[in-house]
Write a structure and sequence with these properties.
The structure holds 2 protein chains of 2 kinds.
Chain A lengths: L2 H32 L6 H15 L5 H24 L7 H23 L17 E3 L2 E3 L1 H23 L1 H11 L1 H6 L4 H27 L6 H15 L4 H18 L8 H15 L17
Antiparallel strand pairs in A: 1-2
Helix pairs in contact in A: 1-5, 1-6, 1-8, 1-9, 1-10, 2-3, 2-4, 2-8, 2-9, 3-8, 5-6, 5-8, 6-8, 9-10, 9-11, 10-11
Chain B lengths: L1 H4 L2 H19 L5 H24 L7 H17 L9 H8 L3 E5 L5 E5 L1 H23 L4 H21 L15 E2 L5 E2 L6 H23 L2 H11 L1 H6 L4 H27 L9 H14 L4 H16 L7 H15 L21 H19 L1
Antiparallel strand pairs in B: 1-2, 3-4
The chains are: A mainly alpha, B mainly alpha.
Chain lengths: 296, 373
């Protein structure tokens, strides 16, 4: 493997990995406020991308993407209000099963709205064949878009959680819901907000990556598995670690393709998932307090 | 007497099975029996999963994987043509032991293959082995970690089946020979054998029911339920929770493999569509709608819903229906549609109220009293 090829693999790994990281962060946001693993997380990306593809036929691309993100955000809120909020005193398992059901329903609804055709958004800049050369590797400008948008999402979320009142209120809820409530935080709306945020960033990631990976109604579930693997790898609830873990998994997958047949690429992530679950379920970067969550 | 009581419903079910046959015959709808037979084999998976989810309180999102291990193992072993080794001594000795069968494929070619009996036993052993290997580490996990790990297992099996030439990739494996049991009985999907197979499938289901009912009404069953209610409490009473959970996991995997192996012989083929995540989720949905800790509910729903699905009643909304069932049951009727008074679903574990505490105490005292008195 020469250097240019190495860079080529690395860049494709980083691209895919940053998408995994965004999905994992989506998992984390909801997990922190509710203790639920939202199995429908992958579906948010596809809903976002599909909506943008439909909107892009009538309005300019940036407007379409903005519209898709807003619509998906509202969709996230709707799901929380209609399904999650209605369940009182539910066990974790019951909520998990509900989100599994939701992911199936959303997927099937998309099948009936957008059929099983593979679609994609147009490239943001240039065309499918335009390339940028970095260190001898040729990549699509869209890769830069994916990396840029992922970086912006991660930075914006970090700032949001650290410096805004709402962000701090959400963190307070994640830490101790009762205490947050006693301080006057409306914890129920924080849960709704976490679903909205998750759906919104998911939709944005789905739009940016759509020109490269293309979009089909049933692509959400595999993304959710990868995202979950990454979230566990980094330690549930730890979003910065999720970025590192996402890049790690992306790179691993990219380089494995050079050794194994491509049809087994999917297996890599799952094997990583099983290994991490068995040997270190608190994640690679676990702190002491997160290990308590293992029994949740 | 108690022992007999739990078996009366099995007799009643057997009578109903015969009645159903008579009704179908009278209304000239005997062709329904084909799908009922298939549904019954799927119900075997559901019964096993019900033991695991409803009684031991452990979720599995990978049961389609075990179904597939059973199905694909018999498919590979019974269709692998050994004719090229005709002259070898090992084949000769296997033949003299009666472990090899000779038949003709669709094109009239002679095929020598392993006897379905050998394949069946091998499939069950292999499944048990894999279930132990997977279960040893995985069954220690809880909640969504367990859910994801079993889901991951199912996905790996799916990918292997889809990727490996041995398993026919996307085409699957077809043209399995019939499974000759004893006498003239055989698991065979062709029309002349329809009635016979209807009863064979039901016999398998009712046998699984008797086995499961015995299990849950035994010392093991009480131990399982106490684990379900509170693992810590059960553990502190000296119940080896890990071993019981693992044993249930393996048993339920083997039941799924029995269903898979028999259905594969009945259909004469198996394909990757049997191994999808959606299939695993479907089994979970059926157990949930049957009422979690309710074997009869699981069995009835397993046959009914699979039958409706196979008849194509749900049309292009097939998967959506099972998704809606999951949500609907969990939102509105977490005890399932067929309510039974003394029902204790795993759904209530999270409700750490005084009620649950009382139940734990009661469950433990019952356990102690019954096992020592």
């Amino acid at each position: 493997m020469n250097f240019a090829l190495f860079v080529q693999y690395a860049l494709s790994g980083i691209t895919v990995g940053s998408v995994y990281a965004i999905v994992a962060i989506g998992f984390n946001i909801i997990y922190c406020t509710t203790g639920i693993i939202n199995f429908a997380q992958g579906e948010f990306l596809i809903v976002g991308a599909m909506t943008a593809i439909s909107l892009a036929q009538v309005v300019p691309l940036p407007v379409a993407i903005l519209g898709a993100v807003l619509i998906t955000t509202a969709f996230g809120a709707l799901i929380e209000l209609v399904f999650i909020r209605q369940v009182h005193n539910a066990s974790v398992l019951r909520l998990i099963i509900i989100t599994i059901g939701l992911s199936i329903l959303i997927r099937e609804a998309m099948l009936h709205v957008w059929d099983e055709q593979v679609r994609s958004l147009p490239y943001f800049t240039g065309t499918a064949v335009s390339t940028v050369t970095i260190l001898g590797a040729h990549i699509s400008p869209q890769v830069l878009w994916v990396l840029g948008v992922s970086a912006v999402i991660v930075t914006a979320l970090t700032l949001f959680f650290r410096y805004t009142t709402v962000g701090r209120a959400m963190r307070a809820c994640a830490d101790d819901r009762m205490a947050a409530r006693l301080c006057g935080v409306n914890d129920r709306w924080m849960v709704t907000l976490s679903f909205m945020l998750s759906a919104g960033i998911g939709a944005l990631a789905g739009c940016v990556v759509s020109p490269i990976t293309q979009t089909q109604y049933d692509m959400g579930a595999p993304l959710a598995i990868k995202g979950f693997t990454v979230a566990i790898l980094g330690g549930l609830g730890n979003s910065m670690a999720a970025v590192a873990a996402g890049l790690f998994l992306g790179l691993l997958e990219a380089f494995v393709v050079s050794v194994l047949p491509a049809s087994y690429k999917e297996v890599v992530a799952i094997v990583v998932l099983l290994l991490i679950l068995v040997f270190r379920p608190t994640g690679l970067f676990a702190r002491r307090e997160t290990s308590a969550l293992r029994t949740a | 007497m108690k022992r007999l009581c739990i078996h009366y419903p099995v007799l009643a079910a057997a009578v109903l099975v015969v009645l159903l046959h008579l009704v179908l015959a009278a209304t000239d709808k005997t062709f329904y029996m084909t799908q009922i037979t298939m549904s019954a084999y799927y119900a075997l998976v559901v019964i096993g999963l019900c033991l695991l989810m409803g009684y031991a309180g452990q979720i599995s999102l990978g049961h389609a994987g075990f179904f597939a291990i059973g199905g694909y193992t018999v498919a590979v072993l019974t269709t692998y043509n050994l004719s090229p080794y005709r002259e070898s001594t090992w084949l000769g000795s296997l033949r003299s032991l009666g472990l090899i069968v000779q038949w003709q494929d669709l094109y009239g070619q002679e095929v020598l293959s392993l006897s379905p009996w050998v394949a069946f036993v091998a499939a069950l052993l292999l499944t048990a082995l894999i279930a132990v290997a997977i279960g040893l580490p995985v069954i220690r996990l809880k909640g969504h970690y367990l859910a994801m790990a079993t889901l991951g297992f199912g996905l790996i099996i799916y990918r292997i089946v889809l990727g490996a030439k041995l398993f026919g990739q996307a085409d699957g494996i077809s043209n399995l020979p019939a499974f000759h049991l004893v006498g003239g009985l055989q698991v065979n999907g062709r029309a002349p054998f329809r009635v016979q197979n209807y009863y064979l499938a039901w016999a398998a289901v009712l046998a699984a029911m008797v086995l499961s009912l015995n299990l849950i009404h035994s010392r093991v069953g009480r131990a399982l339920r106490s684990i379900h209610q509170s693992e810590e409490a059960a553990h502190s009473l000296g119940i080896d929770t890990y071993r019981y959970k693992l044993a249930t996991f393996v048993l339920s995997a083997v039941l799924a493999a029995v269903g898979g192996a028999l259905l594969t012989h009945y259909n004469g083929s198996i394909g990757p569509s049997e191994v999808t995540v959606m299939k695993s989720v479907r089994y979970v949905a059926i157990v949930a709608v049957g009422g979690m800790a309710n074997l009869w509910g699981a069995m009835v729903m397993g046959v009914l819903l699979n039958f409706l699905s196979l008849r194509g009643v749900f049309g292009s909304f097939d998967d959506a229906v099972f998704g809606a069932i999951l949500i609907g049951v969990m939102l509105f009727a977490p005890q399932g549609l067929l309510r039974v008074p003394r029902l204790r679903g795993i759904l209530f574990v999270g409700r750490a109220s005084s009620l649950a505490f009382q139940r734990v105490v009661r469950g433990c005292t019952t356990y102690v009293r019954r096992s020592h008195g």
